[in-house]
Write a structure and sequence with these properties.
18 strands; Phage tail protein beta-alpha-beta fold; 302 residues
Length: 302
């Protein structure tokens, strides 16, 4: 039945229906809808398009002076071109320099080789940056945290930190720079340390420690041939315990709370990196403290 109705509607649209067929179609719902649409469309009439008139208007608009708009657009194009060129130079410069950024997370250490075959060991919670393209001429590194460098012989090799700069030609040395504590240890060769308007030279087996808040530094001999943190423990000598707590946080996924103790008291000892309980005891026992570990928080108290 539905198919018959569709055939009838098709014939009606093509004006092929007889009078009898048209009468039978008037009760079909589809016919009623289409018929109403047809009646509505008969009321619409497209506007006449005057070809000559519209051509004349178009030509008149083309002849209108548009100098102001053209100048405005040209200015915009110049500005856009400057922006594009600036961005292009920045992108190319950054791409050509190939700035390398290497960082470690809490409790993570890594080792890598620089373009000149110098070797770097990076302690936990530390990062370095250097421009690979400029490396053969500058050998400059920005350090935040602690790293051990075994430098290949060559031109000047510089390590920049917020607390000071270490300059060498070819040697093995360690740099620690966190907050206000700056420590440099020379294991081979000789290094120049520039900090706080001071210049100090360190020879093999010499160590320098500078605490910015005290504006003072100490220099002493050492008896080890490599930084102990490479063997998973840090050593401290007469350092305010707050810096030891900071290193504790760098090695373990915990927050140290020490609200009830004097964090300026000095600590000398070791901090192991792979056993949190032993590490806490190594701080608490020498200073006569107690500690409690609560998930990701460790509380030191009197």
């Amino acid at each position: 039945m539905e198919k018959d109705n569709q055939n009838m509607i098709s014939k009606w649209l093509n004006n092929e229906l007889s009078s009898e067929e048209l009468k039978s179609l008037t009760d079909v719902e589809e016919y009623k809808e289409i018929s109403r649409l047809d009646d509505t469309l008969k009321g619409f009439k497209a506007d006449d398009y005057d070809v000559e008139k519209n051509h004349r208007l178009l030509m008149e608009s083309i002849k209108q002076p548009v100098k102001t708009k053209v100048i405005y657009l040209r200015r915009m194009y110049r500005v856009a071109a400057i922006i594009i060129v600036t961005l292009g130079i920045f992108f190319i410069t950054d791409s050509l320099n190939k700035t390398q950024h290497i960082a470690t997370q809490i409790g993570e250490k890594t080792e890598f080789t620089l373009p000149d075959k110098s070797q770097v060991s990076l302690n936990a919670g530390s990062s370095i940056r250097y421009a690979e393209k400029e490396w053969p001429n500058t050998r400059n590194i920005d350090l935040d945290g602690e790293a051990f460098f075994k430098v290949a012989k060559g031109e000047k090799f510089s390590v920049h930190t917020l607390l000071g700069e270490v300059v060498v030609l070819g040697t093995a040395f360690n740099v620690f720079a966190r907050e206000n504590l700056f420590r440099v240890t020379c294991y081979e060769g000789k290094v120049k340390v520039v900090f706080n308007n001071e210049t100090v030279y360190l020879s093999e087996e010499e160590h320098l420690q500078f605490i910015k808040t005290d504006s003072s530094y100490t220099k002493k001999k050492i008896t080890i041939d490599a930084p102990t943190w490479l063997d998973n423990y840090s050593t401290f000598s007469s350092v305010p315990v707050k810096y030891v707590f900071q290193e504790f946080e760098n090695q373990y996924h915990v927050t140290v709370k020490s609200d009830t103790i004097d964090v300026s008291q000095l600590f000398s000892g070791t901090l192991i990196h792979d056993d949190i309980v032993v590490a806490a005891k190594s701080i608490a026992i020498p200073l006569g403290l107690k500690f409690e570990i609560k998930k990701d928080v460790i509380v030191f108290s009197k």
